[in-house]
Fold these 2 entries.
Entry 1:
Amino acid sequence: MFDDSQLVKHFPAMLKALRIRIAGLPESLPLASSDGPLARYFGDLEIDVEEGARYTANRQWERAFQVSKEEQQNRIARGKYGMDLVCPFLEFYSRQEGIRDTDGVGMLARRIRDLNSILDALPNATPGGSVSATNFFAPRTKPATRAPTVPAKRPADSDEDDANDKTYRPPRHTPVQSEEESESEITVLDGLSDARSSMAATTAANTVVTKELLNAGFGEGVDFLEGITIH
């Protein structure tokens, strides 16, 4: 159990969490009236000059919430005359002489813890992700650390490979073709094969004609034979 001196350092964080929790109270809770108990005890920030700030803050809080559990829940109401008065009350007294820089701030933090316990027990008054009295003081666990990802190594080069080869390119994978693309490619290849066969036949015929003309003595002055290779 924390004593007041240990709670002093937690007060700012607890007050901030309480603000968030109060702002998230469900609309199903009733609106507080201007003459309700929270407005009566937290709306008046006048300090008893004879007793001091610490006594006044403690007295007002006890009058507001030192009642039966059933009545505590009945006093949790929304609005500017209800729970909206709690955090300004706590913040005001945390700055007063006799409380500021003393364990009196821890006393106010303990009041926040007590109020969180009341809210925890209130049906439908705990919004998701809120900071309750239970989980605020729960021991914190460190997040699990993930092992660093080691990049995959390139296969070792053989003795014949140049380790500093800058022209290395990863192997290319042949794309998968559909049946229509394959048939179209085969048709084109067949056409190219036929064209090459025709060109070969034409070249052979020209070679024969050329040889016959040369044998007949027409080797010179035949302009149309320029560029034809004689095999």
Entry 2:
Amino acid sequence: MCAGDIITDHQAATTCRRLKIVFNQTLGVADGVSGWAKQGIDSGHYARKLMKNSADAVVALKGTDGNPIGDPERILQEAFSNTTGVQGASTACIVSHNDGVLRAANVGDSGFMVFRDGKMMYKSQTQQRRFNCPYQLGNHSSCDRPDSAIQMEVTVMVDDLVVLGTDGLLDNMHVEEIEKIIAMTMVAKAEREGKTVEEKLAREIAEAAYYKSLDKYGDCPFVRASLLEGKHHKGGKVDDITVVVGRIIQNYDLQIKINSDQKSTPE
């Protein structure tokens, strides 16, 4: 799988609380839960260490043939076990591809979608205890553990697109808006700009989500979800946004190209 990724941050880059992994078979995102800031805790530290340990687990966990096992549940469990001595909490979504099957483990309100021929054919489930209160991994007694993760398997085909993102993406962008971006982002255009189509898609999807988050009167999934809960949130949800886009290029291995960008935007 080829991949491109981008992070936008509504806070200063030094307080960025999301991180991602783009590594051989495996893609992942973590999003530090901002509610802990009320207790003076920066959950970004936990999210960063969790993803660093996830990347280490991808390398360490190998099958009898010496190749990475690509098991998101085990990767997340190993990473969680090694993320000690850090306060805060984080959501996490890890996906791995092998032999035409995409496997995923998701804790909280990050997630992924699979697009085929420009149309969404699968969207992962998210976990919330109540509106805008996601499941979250952490070392505190009130936090969840990796065995709480929703586990998923999706059969994929060559050229399927995997769009992985934090809630800053999922709360601001409707599926049909992402489909429109995919339809408009041609390979030739991406190549002219010196980027792969995956890099171009990740940037355009993230930027669209960012501008929608600043729209004080626009419609978005978060607005509709708030209405179902009897709340009346108006406009986009200002949040950090992480997007990783991967494309299935063969059904027995993954190939990754990485482009990372980060920008700081005002509250």
